[in-house]
């Protein structure tokens, strides 16, 4: 059992006369200064983000030591060179099939997205796919491990196999049992796939990356005591009868449920990394708990918990690498209002609220108790609520008919003609109606590759589900709120 007293620095002050304790305190200060366990997610589903150079300077003014990208934007990777900041880059769900089927495609991906930047840009991990085992089709699930293996082989061929790790990101819904944490177990319907992925993690020393969100657990059980448990605030705790551990916060309980599941499958040495966790600072009227006070309490208390180095009950004495969601709001994301309200910083580079990330000030006061009255729900919440229409990852929300802002998928500036042609061929080859860009069609003129590719890429995005990864095209496309329609050429636009 661990509580707030055990992690308090005041607990060691009476023994400061000991040289050993002086050394311990010195090392603790060094750890707190480097704070390599604190990372942040840098999403780009927005049209108002500051330039990468400004973001790099912002990050250097904080104690954030790692940044996770959902793609591999070269401008961002380049901007982070020589900063010492670790970079996680991603291969989207959409490129899993070619990565799995063609080793040369994987080599090309590494040659384009890693080789030109490494080691000046400190790429530390490549994530292949996002939450595929819980929100993907079975065919995509089956291709996940081969895609990961081909990326690993491509790294090995480039003599980078021991320097850059490869993994995939999982939602908490990979667990079918999580309460109490000691009973954590993976979904048996995908156990064969999970064993293969964990075998790869174990063999290569790569982490098992997971997206725990206490916020969604609270939404499933909106009682004041549950909110306090989720926000690291004083509460009665939850007792695990199997281990006799009393958990004092939801984050530890969720992470330890994953630890138990890994242990039960025989993978006790596979490291856990928290790829995403966060709390929205505002939401729609029906989104209970989304407030500045609660977001500040969750993120601020989580950071303090990580800095204490107390660890979790099943993994004591070491803080799990944790990537906070998110650096900025993403104004083009679909779903409820909360999806666009996770940013720790505003796009003018000021703090949304202070959680102590600044190098100059790391001890802001945190709300001590929940500030939003919640309706009583007598049923206890599991650590991981069963999958419902609520998506446990803010990066995979479904479009909401109640939102109004329309977005379009367009090529990035400077994309080569060869890449535009490849994008055009891909989009038109996947079931969309390309007749408007054929001779006589409303969008044939101007008869240019750029215009035709733009129309086809947007149509593919609109018809494939309007998910961020549907507007990927090997990192050559972006979402825009500017309507590219002209004359009689009307581009379909989806409301987010």
From TrEMBL:
Gene3D superfamilies in alphabetical order: 1.20.58.1040, Glycosidases
Q: What is its EC number?
A: 3.2.1.39
Task: Please tell me whether the keyword Disulfide bond is annotated for this protein.
Answer: yes
Instruction: Tell me the GO BP annotations in alphabetical order.
Output: carbohydrate metabolic process
Question: Its family?
Answer: Belongs to the glycosyl hydrolase 17 family.
Signal peptide bounds = 1-34
Q: What is this protein called?
A: glucan endo-1,3-beta-D-glucosidase
List keywords of the entry alphabetically.
Answer: Disulfide bond, Glycosidase, Hydrolase, Secreted, Signal
Q: Where would you find the membrane-spanning parts of this chain?
A: none
The record's Pfam families line, in alphabetical order, gives:
Glyco_hydro_17 (PF00332), X8 (PF07983)
Which intervals of the chain are annotated as region Disordered? 357-399
Q: Where is the composition biased (Pro residues)?
A: 370-392
Main location class: secreted
Where in or outside the cell it occurs: the entry states: Secreted
User: Per its UniProt record, what InterPro entries does this chain match?
Assistant: GH (IPR017853), Glyco_hydro_17 (IPR000490), Glyco_hydro_17_plant (IPR044965), X8 (IPR012946)
Q: Per the record's keyword annotation, is Zinc included, yes or no?
A: no
Q: Which PANTHER family match?
A: GLUCAN ENDO-1,3-BETA-GLUCOSIDASE BG1-RELATED-RELATED
Q: Could you tell me which residue ranges the X8 domain spans? A: 407-491
Task: Quote the cellular component terms of the Gene Ontology held in the record.
Answer: extracellular region
Q: Its catalytic activity?
A: Hydrolysis of (1->3)-beta-D-glucosidic linkages in (1->3)-beta-D-glucans
- Going by the entry's taxonomy, the superkingdom of the source organism is recorded as Eukaryota
Kindly list the GO molecular function terms attached to this UniProt entry.
glucan endo-1,3-beta-D-glucosidase activity
């Amino acid at each position: 059992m661990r509580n707030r007293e055990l992690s308090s620095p005041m607990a060691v002050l009476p023994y400061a006369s000991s040289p050993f304790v002086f050394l311990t305190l010195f090392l603790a200060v060094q750890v707190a200064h480097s704070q390599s366990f604190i990372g942040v997610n840098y999403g780009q589903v927005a049209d108002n983000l500051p330039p990468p150079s400004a973001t790099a300077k912002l990050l250097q003014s904080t104690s954030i030591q790692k940044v996770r990208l959902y793609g591999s934007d070269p401008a961002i990777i380049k901007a982070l060179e020589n900063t010492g900041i670790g970079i996680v880059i991603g291969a989207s769900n959409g490129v899993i099939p070619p990565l799995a089927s063609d080793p040369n495609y994987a080599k090309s991906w590494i040659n384009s997205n890693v080789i030109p930047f490494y080691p000046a840009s400190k790429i530390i991990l490549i994530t292949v796919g996002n939450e595929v085992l819980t929100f993907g089709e079975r065919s995509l699930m089956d291709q996940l491990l081969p895609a990961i293996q081909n990326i690993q082989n491509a790294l090995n061929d480039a003599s980078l196999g021991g320097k850059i790790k490869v993994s995939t990101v999982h939602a908490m819904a990979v667990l079918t049992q999580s309460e109490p944490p000691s009973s954590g177990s993976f979904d048996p319907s995908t156990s064969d796939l999970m064993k293969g992925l964990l075998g790869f993690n174990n063999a290569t020393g790569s982490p098992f990356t997971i997206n725990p969100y206490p916020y969604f657990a609270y939404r499933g059980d909106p009682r004041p005591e549950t909110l306090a448990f989720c926000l690291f605030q004083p509460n009665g705790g939850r007792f695990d009868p199997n281990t006799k551990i009393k958990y004092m916060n939801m984050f530890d309980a969720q992470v330890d449920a994953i630890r138990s599941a890994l242990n039960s499958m025989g993978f006790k040495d596979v490291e856990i990394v928290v790829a995403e966790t966060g709390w929205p600072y505002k939401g729609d009227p029906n989104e209970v708990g989304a407030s500045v006070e609660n977001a500040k309490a969750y993120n601020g208390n989580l950071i303090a918990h990580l800095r204490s180095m107390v660890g979790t009950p099943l993994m004591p004495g070491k803080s799990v690498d944790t990537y906070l969601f998110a650096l900025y709001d993403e104004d083009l994301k679909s779903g409820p209002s909360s999806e666009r309200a996770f940013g720790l910083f505003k796009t003018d580079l000021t703090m949304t609220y202070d959680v102590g990330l600044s190098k100059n000030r790391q001890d802001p006061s945190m709300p001590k108790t929940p500030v939003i009255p919640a309706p009583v729900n007598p049923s206890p919440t599991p650590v991981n609520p069963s999958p419902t229409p609520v998506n446990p990852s803010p990066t995979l929300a479904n479009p909401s008919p109640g939102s109004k802002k329309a977005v379009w998928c367009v090529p990035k500036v400077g994309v080569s003609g060869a890449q535009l042609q490849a994008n055009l061929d891909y989009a038109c080859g996947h079931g969309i109606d390309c007749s408007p860009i054929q001779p006589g069609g409303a969008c044939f003129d101007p008869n240019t590759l750029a215009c035709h590719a733009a129309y086809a890429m947007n149509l593919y995005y609109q018809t494939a589900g309007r998910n961020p990864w549907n507007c990927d095209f090997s990192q050559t496309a972006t979402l825009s709120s500017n309507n590219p329609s002209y004359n009689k050429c009307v581009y379909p636009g989806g409301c987010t």
